[in-house]
Each structure stands twice: as C-alpha cells, then as structure tokens.
Amino acid sequence: MKYDQARWQREDEDLYEPLLSEKDGETVDVDESPLPDDLTRDSLELPDLSEPELARHYTRLSQMNYGVDSGPYPLGSCTMKYNPKFTEDVAALPGAAVHPDRSEASVQGTLELLYGLQDYLARIGGMDAVSLQPPAGAAGEFTGILVAQAYHEANGEGHRDEILVPDSAHGTNFASAAMGGYDVVELPSGDDGRVDLDALEAAASEDTALFMLTNPNTLGLFERDIEEIAAIVHDAGGLLYYDGANLNALLGRARPGDMGFDIMHYNVHKTFATPHGGGGPGAGPVGVTDELAAFLPAPRVRETDESAEGTYERFDPEETIGKVHGFAGNWLVLVKAYAYIARLGDEGLADASAKAVLNANYLAEQISYEVPHGPFHHEFVASAGDQDAADVAKRMLDYGVHPPTTKWPEIVPEALMTEPTEVENRETLDQLAEAFDAVASEDESALAAAPERTTAKRIDQASAARNLRLSWHALDDE
Q: Which of the residues 18, 102, 345, 435 has the least number of beta carbons within 10 Å of its own beta carbon?
C-alpha cells in the first residue's frame, strides 16, 4: 500500500477553515465559573534559577541516563531496539495531529494508514484480522484472553476456566490470565528448555481455554514441536496464544498463524522500533484467525465501496468485546510502527531478523560464561555460575555498558539473559563481550562493591517506585 501523505495533510488543513468562522452569525456565550478555593493559589513558588543554570541542569541529567541512544542495551526479552529518528519525523508531520473523534470523511488519510497497518501486521503474523486498540503488550495479552473468553462462551463452553503457561513464560502471561479470572496452570520445561509434551498432554483438558506460548521461547529456543503442541491444545478444545515478545527473531521466516496459533499480540516497541514506553504510551495490537475476528475490540477499520464520503470506515465487529482503550489506540505510536514496516519492507524486516540472530550467536561465542541451552535465536541465557547475577549486572555498569536481564528465567541458575538486537555492530558486541569477561574474572568483593563509577549506586527500586518525588519540594524534607 502506498500512503498518500499529501491527502492526509490536505484533509487536515481543510478541516480547520470552517471551525475558525462563526456559524450562522452566532457566538458562543460561556459563563465564567470560579474554581474552588482549595484548587487555587495566590502565588507560585519556583526555584530561582537562571536559564543557563536550568539548561545545564537538564543537560547533566541527560548525560547521567543510559538509553538506546547511549550504547548497547542487551536486556534479554525486552528487545531494546534503537529507535530510528525518521519515524519520529513522520509522527511529527502536521497531518499527524488529528483529533481522534473527527468524522470519517475528514480523516480518510488517517483511516487509510490504520487499515494499512492492520494489513501489514496480519500478513506478518499470519493472522486474518487485527485490532490496533490495546495500548501495550500486556494490554494486548489481556485483550486476547478476553477475546478467547468471549469465543468460548459463544460456543457454549464458558466452563473452560484454565490457562496453561510454561514456566519460562513472561510474568505478564501469568498476571494477564489471572486478571481474566482464569486458574493458571504452570507447565514445567523439558530438559532441553522447551515445552514438555508429556506435561502438556497431561494438563490439556476440557477445562483448557488457552495455552500461552512464546516462540522462540524465553531461552531463545525455537519450539521445534510447535505443530504437535498446537494439535494437543486444539484436540482438547483450547486455543493457542502467541506472546509476540520474540517475534523479532522470526520476521520474514516464519509466521505464528502458520504454526497453528489462534491469537497473538504484537509488541511494536520490540519488533517495529517504536519507543519502549517507560510507562507509556505504547501499542500492543492483537491478531486473530477468522473464527475469532467477530470478538475483537471496537472499532476497527475496513474498506468500503458504498460510502460516498470515503474509501475507509470504522466499524464494530459483530460480537465485539467492546473497547479496551480509547478510540483506535495510541495513534502516534502506530504511525511510527507503520513507517518502520513500510520503509524496511519484506527484505528489510527479514534482514533485521537475520542480524538479530547472528548478533546473539556471535556474542554468546565470545563470552566465558556458560550458555547451557542451544541452539538459540535472537537471545541467549548464560549462567553466572558461582557469582551472583545481580552483582554481575552492577559491575558491568562500571565498564560503561548496560547489563543483561538477570535471575530470569529461573530454570537457568543465576541467569544472564542477553539480547543484543540487530542494531549492534561487531565493535559494540566485542565491547559487551569484554565487559562480560572482565567481570567473570573478578572476585566477590569487587562485585559486591559495584557500581563504583555511576552517579547512583544500588537503589532500592521497589521503594523508589512506591515513593515518587514528583516535585523539587520533596528535597525540603531531607
């Protein structure tokens, strides 16, 4: 699909002309309403700073932070991709500033983009229909569970009250299943780190609503028995759910729909290089097969040949579960995902996937820590052995790199879960390997004292999250 940017901008400019003029010579008369006394103040106290002081303060803060623009960021399973700046430029175009409640006739360009993204994602995932509404990956999981729930109830099987989850799954899988009101059945992994087929066969029953699975899994291992897994779940009357966290490993090579998955969510920040969020906004579109399409959230976008006002329209699926977020979702995040997919195309997406797999395998070969499972794809899980994985992570900060995810999945002792993504070159991979090996050779006292070179040391992250400093006035209490 070729997107018509000129039409998008034209529609935006045309919209405002009638809004700037009076309608039938009338004016709007709004009475002043005084604010409550407890919401107003006579003066505003602000820090007494000059502009240079303020500029230097925020510049120093930016230099103290580490992000994807600073260097390699190998947090396993988080897929911390560099965010290309051209997608930010696209999202900042004047035509992108559209109010979500405008009429269909005035936003045909916007609807065209949303329709195009639905189509892109459906083809990439091997799905038949896609909703763009969920605002995050975890929200996508929850939406998928609600869709499955509605499907089973419509088929007279609302008694299905269990969701199967492997022990290597993301924590959000367990949480989303519980939020949906289901009993969570945890399945142990086999000795090879993959789904234990005997355990799955024993657990799958008439009570099974879903089996939630990531492929490749959290160890970076491809579930080679995926077709048999799908058959076991489907024979029990359940549905197979694809956690899209690791889709980056498969682009252009395999599709969840072709493996037998019925529902999936897409993490656009992990796979299509939108910002990771840090609390939001994000996007977690959900794709489904034909038999589940009628239950997707409303509204979706479709083509129409009947409307005299435009080619695209919003519509509510016949048995929709309703809204899970406002309007069509986080629009500007979706614009960035569309731009990324459109620019890379089929060959570019497949190349990104290939480089992600290559980089992970190259880095794993360079480090001295043991990597107990393989062959793997986009990420690997090493073991810190006798060292504490959390100490290893803190010490790596002293070598100027961001550490991997630690102590998870628990099936690898002292796990160092590492995903370099496709964006790193050999130089930065070697830099990471040198940091790994330097820490591996150090004694316990050096690790326990780390980090020594960072502004902040060992922060109590739980307390920091619960007791936020939202104002400079908080410093007065210290």
A: 18
